[in-house]
Design brief:
The complex is a heterodimer of chains A (247) and B (248).
Chain A (H helix, E strand, L loop, with lengths): L1 E5 L6 H14 L4 E5 L6 H4 L15 H8 L14 H5 L1 E3 L2 E5 L12 H16 L4 E5 L9 H4 L4 E6 L3 H16 L5 E6 L16 E5 L3 H9 L9 H16 L1
Helix pairs in contact in A: 3-5
Chain B lengths: L2 E7 L5 H14 L5 E6 L5 H5 L7 H10 L8 H11 L2 E2 L3 E5 L10 H15 L4 E6 L14 E8 L3 H16 L4 E11 L5 H10 L2 E7 L2 H9 L11 H13 L1
Parallel strand pairs in B: 1-5, 1-6, 2-4, 2-5, 6-7, 7-8
Antiparallel strand pairs in B: 3-4
Helix pairs in contact in B: 1-9, 3-4, 3-5
Classes of the chains: A alpha/beta (247), B alpha/beta (248).
Amino acid sequence: MKLAIAGKGGVGKTTLAAWLGDYLIRQNKEVWLIDADTAISLGPALGLSLEEVPIPLVNNKKLIQERVGTGVYINLNPEVDDLPQKLAKDVRGMKLLVMGTIAGAGSGCGCAANAMLKALLAYMILRSSQWLIVDLEAGVEHLGRGTITSVDGLIVISEPSIRGLQTASNISRLARDLGLKKQVMVLNRASEDFVPPKDIALPPIVANIPYLKSLEQRQQTSPCVLDLPEREDIDEICIKVLDALKK
Amino acid sequence: MAYTVAFSGKGGVGKTTLCGLFIRYLMENDKYPILAVDADSNYNLNEVLGVDVEFTLGDVREDMKRGNVPVGMTKDRFIDTKLEESIIETDKFDLIVMGRPEGQGCYCAANSLLTAFLSKLVGNYDYIVIDNEAGMEHISRLTTKDVDILLIVSDTSKRGLQAAQRINELAQSLNVLIGRPYLILNNVEGELSEPVKKYIQDMGVELLGCVSRDDNILEYDMLGRPTFDLPEDSAAVKSAFELFKKIV
């Protein structure tokens, strides 16, 4: 199954991605995680130190030059089949690929880096037989229709704030317009009686991650979100989300 | 030359809220006209400031690329008009929203038009305030104006601080002149812990100061009220204004 997780910054996308990966690997699945978020913090969330986190693909100028080229003629469909194995970092049996974010044009042409990133994402999503979880802050619409139709499900996550919910709603609408209809919503740190305002359209809410004191305390000293005392409760949340997406 | 201040930091640490408060600080101290630039792909500075966005520069760029130009109008003329229209104007500040990232294909032509437009636009203001996501791609789009001050916002979590560290390194490597980076710690309750102090020291970025935790912000966010309108005596506003005084 190929899943994308999206939502406003800081709402818990990366934490949920790490939890899902950790749950699946303990079920003896083959798990690939892709970090395509601006904060590039999935590696640390899984317990890697900053030195152990591979450099994001978008910053790997040499590789991009080699595959996409520079100057006037660039190949917008670069060869990437060998890259997942080459670039992946093993973490607890999971494979982590760090991509970075689709760049704005920035200084000069961002096409080469973007082409590389999109080609690799598409390759990972289109090829079969494993669990793939993509942490994608900005939503899915820049992936292109062909790639999006092969994503099996979108998990939209938000805190109980209007800005977070509005972002969730936008991401969900844009993904649906592109044909990604299987969507679920996860609320983070909302009280049990919280009900989102009716005028904000959201996918069905399938799980609510409670506020975890242990996680807040841990985050003060370590970026790792795994091995918390509440692991069983966290597994329950993962099961709920995955079950809802299988339906 | 406009005085340019950019905010950056991991998502959810309060960049946009502080950015909004900074704009309010400038207004209350008669420092305007201000150009506010929302460079976050999941933009919501407008919600913090309490104004509506009709379309973004990203939308105009999409039009340019697709060639959605009305009959009888040249492409350049049409794009110029659309870009002008995308500016949200108020008495003391204007807002432009960069919008969502690019779709498939090459955007170079559209992007150079955008850069040209922005270079022309920034000349009209005394202050430019940019709300960036952690990647900061858009800063380099505004290369005609250097960034005087980069405010890196973080909470006291390790991941927030690591992102801050990475942003600082990234800022050094961008080909934009950045006058000075400062760190602002947001949502701080009581004294900073020793590990946090140590981490900041090792990071090598000067700590401008801390903004106090403030339940008002949670409440405003929950209700969708613009945090721009927070009461003057609320803890976050008071502590944030103290910090802003040091830089403007």
